[in-house]
Amino acid sequence: MKKLLPLMLLLALMGCDQKKDDGWLGYGEGDFAYVAAPQAGWVTQMQVERGKAVHRGDLLFVLDDTQQQASRDQAQAALAQARASLAQERANLTYARTELTRQDNLAKAGAGTPTQHDQARTQYQQSRARVTQLQAQISQMSASLGGADYSLSQRRVIAQTEGSVQDIYFRQGEYVPAATPVVSILPPANVYARFFVPEPDMAKVHLGQKVRITCDGCKPMDATITFIAAQEEFTPPVIFSVGNREKLVFKLEARADGGLPLHPGQPIQVRPL
């Protein structure tokens, strides 16, 4: 037994000297969707809060629409007036066509006068040209009304993606400049892993390679390397440790279909498959 004790002690020391394989360190990351309105305005309603799950088509927030409503009403009124004018001019055209036909028949019978015949022809041609002009104006006004309707609809900002609301940058009663994000959403499919591989291990990785991701309290998950940085950098402070704070590493990203069940900033370990 005394002879075995030194051997057991030696084996224990050798085990202590072995380097623990914690994999490549990293963290969860996400591509956020920043939702903005295409026009400026005052926020009159905020329909979501941070942490709320939203789906495509949900109402996120509303901007004041007084000006847009007035523009739409004005376009509707102008279109209605143009259509009324077209109806009247079509009635005039019918009368002018009838009168021209009558003058044609009189001219064939030698009973009419050239002046009346010319006048009937002129009135018919002018009425027909007026109908064509009004039809073109109505087409243009219909397009303007469609634009006014669209501008009005953009005051109610609808979610074009789904996920959880991460932040709200403006509240009810605040003025939002055009194209300025008001709400940020994190779609689950946009969550991925970002990790850092030491320079000596770069020979082990390549684009399209499968990796296994583990973290505290979660099941192992597989992903595919989709990005490898072209330039090395020092270990980022977010994953500093005594052993790696001065190492040169390359930043990599791995994604999975439908996203990874991680939280942005959550520490992970990554190993090649």
Question: What report would you give on this structure?
Answer:
This protein is α+β, with helices and mostly antiparallel strands. Among the domains are: 21-31 and 188-272, Efflux pump adaptor protein, beta barrel domain (Elongation Factor Tu (Ef-tu), domain 3), CATH 2.40.30.170; 66-153. The protein has helices at 4-17, 66-109, 114-153, and strands at residues 24-30, 33-36, 41-46, 53-54, 59-63, 156-158, 163-168, 175-176, 181-186, 191-198, 210-214, 221-228, 233-234, 248-255, 267-272. Helix 2 runs antiparallel to helix 3 (114-153).
Sequence-ordered SSE layout with sheet pairings:
Blueprint: H1 4-17, E1 24-30, E2 33-36, E3 41-46, E4 53-54, E5 59-63, H2 66-109, H3 114-153, E6 156-158, E7 163-168, E8 175-176, E9 181-186, E10 191-198, E11 210-214, E12 221-228, E13 233-234, E14 248-255, E15 267-272
Antiparallel strand pairs: 1-10, 1-15, 2-9, 3-5, 3-8, 4-7, 5-6, 7-9, 10-14, 11-12, 11-15, 12-14, 13-14
Helix pairs in contact: 2-3
